[in-house]
Amino acid sequence: MPARARGTAGWGRRDNGGMDGTDGTNGMDGTPEDSGTPAGGRGAEAVLHHARALVLADLTARRAAGPEAVSLLEEAVSSRRWWLEQWADGAAFVPGLVAQDVQDALLEAYGRWPLCPLCEDPHALAVEPELGPDPHWVCEARGVAVAPVGSLGPGPEGPR
Q: Would 140 be classed as within a structural domain?
C-alpha cells in the first residue's frame, strides 16, 4: 500500500515521481505551478470566478441577475483578468473592483444598483474600501456597512 502524504491536500496522493503534477509542476512540461498569481497558474482564474460568484449572488439577491446584467458582469470579470495579470498581489481586491465595475455599468445602462435597504430616499450603496480586501456594501448616508460583497440580502429590487 502506498504511503500517504501529509498536508491539507495531500491525503490519498501517491508519490509517482511527479508525473501527475503533484511535485509542484504542472505535470506537462515541468513548468512551476506558481506563475505569478497568488495560488499558482490557476489562481487568477479562481480569483476571478470567486469574484464573479460573489457579485452574481448580490445581483440574484436583488433580482437584478437578468441576461443584460450578467453580460455586464462577464465583461467586468474579463477586464479584471488583465488587471490581475499585471498585479497578482491585488487578488484580494478583485471582488470589490468587479462589484464596482458592475455597479458603474448598471448605472450607465439601467440606473442605480444596489439600492440602500436602510433609507427611504433611494440611493445606491457604495463598495468600501474602494481598493482593498474584504469589500462591503455601505450606506454612505448613514456610514453603515450593510453587507459584505456576495452577502447582500433581499432589498429594493433591480436598478433604478
A: yes
Give the 3-state secondary structure of residue 40: strand
Q: Which residues pair with 26 in a beta bridge?
A: none
Close Cβ partners of 55 (under 8 Å, ≥ 6 residues apart): 73, 76, 95, 98, 99, 102, 149, 150
Q: Residue 8, class by beta-carbon neighbours within 10 Å (0-12 exposed, 13-18 middle, 19+ buried)?
A: exposed
Residue 157 has pLDDT above 80, yes or no: no
12 phi/psi in degrees, rounded to 5: 90, -10
Total structural domains in the chain?
1
Confidence of residue 109 (pLDDT cuts 50, 70, 90): confident
Which tens digit of pLDDT belongs to each residue from 37-83?
344 446 899 999 999 999 999 999 999 999 999 999 999 999 999 99
Question: What range does the domain containing 122 cover?
Answer: 43-148
CB 84 within 8 A of CB 91: yes
Q: Measured at the alpha carbon of residue 132, what is the angle toward residues 144 and 71, in degrees to the nearest 5?
A: 90
